Amino acid sequence: MDAFDHPYYRLNKRLLLLVGQWPYQDSSEHHFRVFIVTLGLLNFIFPQITLLCTCNGDVEIIIASMAPISALLVCAFKYYTMEFKKDKVIGNYVELEKNWKLCINLEEKLNYLLFGIQVRLQFTRNNIEYPIFSDILHIVNNIYIYIVFLKVYIYTCMTMFLVLPFLPCIMDIVVPLNESRSLKPIFRGEYFINEDENFFPIYFHMSVTIVIAITTLITADNLFLMCNSHICGIFAAVGYNYRFRLENFLKDQTDSISSLDHLSNHKCLETIRYSIRNHANALKFAELIESCFSISLLLQAGLSLICMSISLYQILIVFKRSAESVRFIVFAVAQLVHLFCMCYPGQRMIDYSTDIRIKAYNGLWYKAPLAIHKFLILIIRKSLEPSCLTAGKIFVFCLESFATILQTSTSYFMVISSAQ
Q1: Are the C-beta atoms of 225 and 232 separated by less than 8 Å?
Q2: pLDDT-derived band of residue 260, with 50, 70 and 90 as boundaries?
């Protein structure tokens, strides 16, 4: 079965086909879909740019325009990362398919298919039960559920954002005034027409472009999370190979090393060599993922910092006007959750890559032949330096970076608010 037809990857494949980024789709279809997405992104940013050019230096309008522009640039950078780094993206797919073939036994196959589920599956060998995932998987949610949650959350925030302009109509029914409340667009923009008289055409235009932008964002994030979860699964499987496969093999032998025959020694060496090859492939795959997404993560970090700072400032300004403050609160929280969902996979990659040395050391290495001892020393030294996701080689994407970005954005918010 093609790996990308598995339910784990099927939705991501459909989204990539939708936005024209599936590397194996027809060339003409690819160019057409890229043109549609590019047209949608340009149609979103054009009214914002024209508003900046015609605002005559109005600081309030400039600040209000920076948040949607920053959010759009995040979507655009992520999308065109997939487009301009297509060779590396294809390399990720090739490595992903190749690594699936490394699952040569049932235990490792389950490790890939069920990676992230909080369970304790067991297999039986010589009527003895061994826990497969007790030392491999300690997270609460399946990565697939994590990806689905991200999709649902962002699309829910988008839907709320698209519905909020009609809140004055609802308020006119619930709490009527002597006059009707005016409808306000999703974002301010310059269309060179009367916005009050043409509210619905402007709203329809913004809604379509926002849906296109959010879909490209979700697709790029799915690709990133898919590669990240796969490399974490590989590291977990490699750690399992170093400890449980070798340990279970040695348990089947006699306790005396001297009584291991030539065939048993050969099997021990083959087991550790197989694990080392998988480890080397995992490290190369991790480097490929890092080189593919590094610049995109750097730009996202910088723009998210600007976007959250401005959103916090806008919440402070319009806090007493509940209808508008809800809009900016939803936008700020969506930015925060999205940034966390990008930093957390980087932390998992660090944890699983460094956990290999612990599993290699905790196994029954002292019962193995002397040649395996030398191999294990090399393995431990190789896994001392974690595989990580960097933002343009400047800083590492992890939970500490998330806290730093959040703290910095809050500091910028305080500076902006104190300057007013």
Answers
A1: no
A2: low
